[in-house]
Design a protein that fits this description.
Layout lengths: L11 E6 L4 H13 L4 E5 L7 H7 L3 H6 L1 E3 L2 H4 L5 E5 L10 E3 H12 L4 E5 L8 H5 L3 E4 L11 H15 L15 H17 L11 H12 L3 H15 L8
Parallel strand pairs: 1-2, 1-6, 2-3, 4-6, 4-7, 5-7
Helix pairs in contact: 1-2, 1-7, 5-7, 8-10
């Protein structure tokens, strides 16, 4: 293992989706700040700004003051090279699942060169399948199965702690140097869905979770910019093939 600087934490973004209690936003900001993570984005919080967020932040005002409120998860993930969804339960969708420690190791390795987002859901319903599908990895905190309910701010604290610890035991990830951004990967998925619909491989009336499975397939490879360009070129050639002269 090779020690990596804590500056990797500056490339970590915490994303809170649909948070209902402003106190949890403040507590999450405090949890982040204690571990040296300051990039916070919120997707449609139900009550924010709110005095309770300030009270629960307990002085972590720099995190709240720089936090962004977004209208969609895609907006919150803009500019990131990789996203990890946090969930307490297994999902019937095609996203690889690991525990929080493994997720932290992978996140910090990528964060050496690219922003990485950790996405947390609403206090009652968690993340939707569509939200999880926007991420390349699903991570869970091992808890007592008889009482698996964990406050969202407490979950953020556990993840941020593991991220800080992972900075002391991370191997370099050369592939992260050219990882495609969230926007580039989403544009590829849109191009792929449009192409396979046009060719008849995908029936929009009966999709059968095909796109979820294809997302999992490509998420495992962590697409690089050059790979996205190649794949999109192949998709374009399927619809408008080029005639090449024979030798």
């Amino acid at each position: 293992m090779v020690n990596r600087p804590l500056t990797s934490l500056k490339n970590i973004r915490i994303v809170l989706c649909g948070t209902s209690h402003p106190g949890n936003i403040g507590a999450a900001a405090r949890a982040m700040r204690t571990m040296g993570i300051t990039d916070l984005a919120m997707v449609n919080p139900q009550r924010y700004p709110d005095p309770q967020a300030v009270w629960f932040a307990a002085g972590a005002m720099d995190v709240l003051e720089s936090a962004r409120v977004c209208k969609s998860l895609s907006e919150a993930l803009a500019g990131t090279g990789f996203a990890i969804a946090s969930s307490a339960r297994q999902r019937d969708i095609a996203v690889p699942m690991v525990d929080v420690r493994e997720a932290a190791l992978q996140a910090v390795a990528i964060a050496q060169s690219r922003p990485v987002a950790l996405v947390f859901g609403n206090e009652t319903s968690g993340l939707s399948n569509d939200e999880v599908g926007c991420c390349g990895l699903l991570a869970s905190i091992p808890v007592d199965p008889e009482f698996s309910s964990l406050n969202v701010a407490a979950a953020v604290q556990v993840f941020c702690y593991e991220l800080r610890m992972a900075c002391g035991a991370v191997l370099p990830d050369d592939k992260a140097q050219t990882l495609a951004t969230h926007e580039e990967v989403e544009a590829f998925y849109a191009h792929l869905e449009q192409t396979i619909t046009t060719t008849g491989f995908l029936n929009p009336a009966h999709p059968r979770k095909l796109m979820y499975r294809l997302r999992r397939l490509f998420a495992r490879s962590r697409l690089q910019v050059e790979e996205v360009n190649i794949l999109r070129g192949i998709l374009s050639s399927l619809l408008t093939p080029k005639n090449r002269d024979k030798d």
